[in-house]
Amino acid sequence: MTNLETFRAETRAWLEENCPESMRTPMPEREMPWGGRNASYPNPDTKVWMDNMASRGWTAPTWPAEYGGGGLSKEENKVLQEELARIKARPALTSFGLWMLGPALLEFASEEQKKKYIGEIVRGEIRWCQGYSEPGAGSDLAGLQTKAEDKGDHYLVNGQKVWTSYADQCDWIFCLVRTDNSVKHDGISFLLIDMDDPGVEARPIKLISGSSPFCETFLTDVKVPKENLVGELNKGWTIAKRLLEHERSMISGMGMGAGAASMGGMEAVAKENFGTDGDRIADPAIRNAIAAHKMDQQAFGLTMKRAGEEAKAGQGMGAAASMFKYYGTEVNKRRFELLLDIMGTQALGWEGEGFDSKELAVTRSWLRSKGNSIEGGTSEVQLNVIAKRVLGLPTA
Amino acid sequence: MAFVLSEEQTMLRDMAKQFFSEQVPVTNLRKIRDDGSEDGFDRDVWKQIVELGFAGILIPEDLGGTGFGPMGIGIVMQEAGRTLAASPLYATAVLGAGMIIAAGSESQKKQLLPRVAAGELLLALAIDETNHHNPANIAMTATRDGDDFVLSGEKRFVIDGHIADKLIVAARTSGTPGETQGISAFLIDADMAGITRTRTHMVDTRNAANIAFDNVKVPADALLGGTDSAFPELENVLDMGRVCLSAEMLGGIETVFDTTLTYLKERKQFDAIIGTFQALQHRAAEMFCEVEICQSVVLDALSALEERRNDIPRAASLAKARLSEAARLITNEGVQMHGGIGMTDAVDVGLFLKRARVQAQMLGDANFHRSRYADLGGY
Ligand SMILES: Cc1cc2nc3c(=O)[nH]c(=O)nc-3n(C[C@H](O)[C@H](O)[C@H](O)COP(=O)(O)OP(=O)(O)OC[C@H]3O[C@@H](n4cnc5c(N)ncnc54)[C@H](O)[C@@H]3O)c2cc1C
Prior knowledge:
heterodimer; A: 396 residues; alpha+beta; Butyryl-Coa Dehydrogenase, subunit A, domain 1; Butyryl-CoA Dehydrogenase, subunit A, domain 2; Butyryl-CoA Dehydrogenase, subunit A, domain 3; four-stranded mixed sheet; four-stranded antiparallel sheet; 43% helix; B: 379 residues; 3 domains; three-stranded mixed sheet; 11 helices; 15% strand; binds flavin-adenine dinucleotide
């Protein structure tokens, strides 16, 4: 047996033993494994599964083992992912720490910072949120005004963040703060703040989908130790941009295939709603729209795959992250609009009698999907990035 | 890795790129048009194409070809598409040779393929009978008459139909139009008694013909493949053709996109380079995404053919539908973003627009392929 085959056999056996049965079933939203100090586990298996995976560093399989990651090679990770998919395992840990902060820390943080924060992320002990946007700084993020003043042994932070996803449930926040007023991009620093510190307050905001996943976050005279600065003073923009790339590739892959999948695929739903003509969906317009959409999805998937192969071969596809963010989120939004066309009024229930839980979930997910092309940089901003950085079109 | 060209393939691409850009630029097509060429292609160019080995790319080496396979021909078609190169490559080397390779007997292969690779024999595949591609919808009949067959019916939009030495004709030996069972293929000389070929002048200046068959008597050894059962092989070859067309279209949209982008960076209005206008920037960025997507689906379809994957039909329909739509978008935007000059015959973008619409119709437009894709998906 080759090393990889051995690894596969061992992994399979280990998963068989360590992945609880209930973690091999579809995951309801309330059982998402976010981790953190305030985590609650409606299904106790969630915590067991998280701890088991974390004990091997497999919540972050390719991160260096010295900081608590799995230390797996790309090939080994591929095997692990295949084995996880084979048993339909749920993710053991979902978190902004894994998706965004961790990769940025590994690149930019000091040795002590990596030692402290990476392990906490891998084990799901600390739940992180992202303090970028402010009331006056959205697309024009570098216009942010939350300021951090040097007070000798600490920074004194004052300002307001907004749209901070899950801030009310998080333990720590990674923030962009202004440390120099005289320049725009070069006056921004990257700061880590414990949300238990005095002066941090998060107030939930209600969304059109009815839930309140994000908050206004107020920072009033918060004292932040100097060792919480990541990278150099006033060099935070570089880190911010790199982290956004991780965020964009995460969002672009998010939710592909979900929604309708829980209903058995949109073709099946369409057949139920419109009847069939032989094997075909009886309504030709809907059938055509579904085929067009599935082609979009397949073509997008192939392009992600191509980008991966090209990256391995050392050929960059250029600002791929922006293209994927733009295309992926727009396709995802269209998918939900199409589901509405297919399901009709049954996809427009808000609550109560007459709708089953899957149908209600479609309604809420449709509304939530509108945010995909806003969060992490809007579609328009992605197009700006492509036009300027990839196509080299001039600025006025 | 399917999406990254091998060293050999990269060399082939560079060679093809250099050849078409230097020897067969768009001016070559203009000359064919303006001279009112009878052939509709340039025989000197064809000779060079043959010398480079492109005519025999799909043909095995022991039969005189280069055996470079589907990825090879796709790469060449893409480069040919960049300059709108008109040649018998598609009808002869892809469809014609493809059908002989797929369905021919050993002796047919031995006799014909070396001549195709040597550029001595031009072929054309005659399938469609209506304004829309639909390969099962064949009404033309081939009736048994002793040891012979008698062909009667009409074919439309046969690419290279008027210049071909031999025709491959799909006709019905049993069944009714719409059925895939009962279709047979015949390989016959193009100048047999009873055949009338009428060249049609298309908007893209490329070759096509309507062909009438009036009780054409052909011997039984003209059969290519089995009686009644040619459809599966025909579909394989059509899929190869669809993917190669998609590759050619990709070359075309890449040129239009590059040209348009260059224009956006040069043209000034309101004291500004028009490329600074965000309305145009965003549309350019959208086109960029489309081109990237198109590159992926074409490469995937070519590797499906190369690796003989079992999802070839799906990959081919995805590519052909996608490219047909993208080419419509990008050629339209190309004309629009050039403004008035885009409407003139003097710039090339209009030629690409015209070619793109013909390509879109060839072997099935986006609607056809979406429907096929849905059928293949069981809905
Ligand atoms: C679900 C969700 C979760 C989020 N989570 C977080 C989070 O955890 N942390 C965080 O920091 N932020 C978060 N955000 C905020 C998000 O990053 C911002 O909403 C986003 O960057 C847009 O900023 P804005 O809302 O101020 O819109 P604006 O920037 O005011 O944009 C308004 C409109 O103008 C357009 N526009 C703006 N500038 C340009 C331009 N130059 N060219 C063309 N069009 C332009 C935009 O595309 C948009 O259509 C989240 C947002 C959503 C929807």
